Amino acid sequence: MTDTSFLDWPFFEDQHRAMGEQIRNWAQQSFGDDGFVEHEDVDADCQKILKQLGQAGWTQLCVPAAYGGAYETFDVRSLCLMREHLAYRSGLADFVFAMQGLGSGAITLYGSDALKQAYLPGVADGSKCAAFALTEPEAGSDVSAIATSAIEDGDDYLINGEKTFISNGGIADFYVVFARTGDAPGARGLSAFVVDADTPGLKIAERIDTIAPHPLARLEFIDCRVSKDKMVGLSGQGFKAAMATLDVFRSTVGAAALGFARRALDEATNRATSRKLFGSTLAELQGVQSQLAEMALDIDASALLIYRAGWTKDKGASRITREAAMAKLYSTEAAQKAIDTAVQIFGGLGVTKGSVPEALYREIRALRIYEGASEVQKLVIARQHLAETQS
Ligand SMILES: Cc1cc2nc3c(=O)[nH]c(=O)nc-3n(C[C@H](O)[C@H](O)[C@H](O)COP(=O)(O)OP(=O)(O)OC[C@H]3O[C@@H](n4cnc5c(N)ncnc54)[C@H](O)[C@@H]3O)c2cc1C
Which residues have CB under 6 Å of ligand 1? Predict the structure, then answer.
């Protein structure tokens, strides 16, 4: 990463500056310039990366110190720094790291001590692979439409239903599953459960292939029996647990987009300063300078929003709904634009399979959809704005 001057900003403490340097070097040594190669076996590569992250101690950032982690609670700035630097080198490495946090986040925030003891140390050392199962075929942006049910049966719950687009589906050791436990309408009747991957009644019904492949699946639950002590938090707290988890991790999606955008700018700058045409280099053309300027500007603006959100949360804010939505919305949209510009500056090479701009172009797309599509983030920001101005 060429520009690391942002680490001098007042949002950071010295520990972040040191960590930023360490993760930058580690990612460079671990993935070099080949992190965006096509993965023949994404499952195996994810498992290998998880082991690497675990052995290096990086997955400890996803878990509180009392359960084998690094900080007392989530340090959002560290999570963002990790994702930014990993995404700069490898979309798959960023994905593997992010899922450890997202997949176990509800347990950290709402789980009983017994659940934390059982699952979090494995997440911290990379020996347990985590997944977050919220989306259903008929309930994506509209979480209140979740139909998967969990019905009490003696000391257990029986889960029936379907989840789709579940990252790590097929390789996860456990899934945090959101299901309807009560008659309360919409989001109020939801609860969360930890379901081990080998629980009878849980089936990987379909693997889903995407433009930037990573393990992704549709899950089926047929009379899947989980004991009551696998409930995360209280009955009816599922929606709250899901939203609080997303509140922490939304800013980190922005940080991943920022890492992709920084890589796009570095690639575009190298290409523009070396490509000769019309008797000079691309970089000497004013039109190209304007493109590079816009990329650099959008990158700084994204970083300011992301680290503002992280700093606000780390300094004690209970929720950062508005800040996280702004960080995710702006950074993912800006990264898409920056990467498209990099493809343009590369010309034909930019759309050639195997080139870094081509890989970035595929990697960035889903970030504008998952963990709340851009349109949903606008609604969130507007609601917060109206509530603040009308109160
Ligand atoms: C690569 C990938 C990984 C994923 N991983 C996970 C995972 O690990 N766990 C999990 O639970 N889910 C996961 N998802 C699912 C993801 O969260 C959903 O795809 C997302 O919430 C959108 O839901 P949907 O696909 O059903 O689209 P829909 O809800 O049908 O929305 C379609 C489009 O409608 C528009 N839209 C939606 N709401 C509004 C609105 N209020 N106003 C205006 N326009 C709107 C948006 O453009 C949106 O993209 C993943 C998805 C992808 C693509």
Answer: 132-135, 140-141, 165-167, 210, 216, 366, 369-371, 373, 375-376, 379
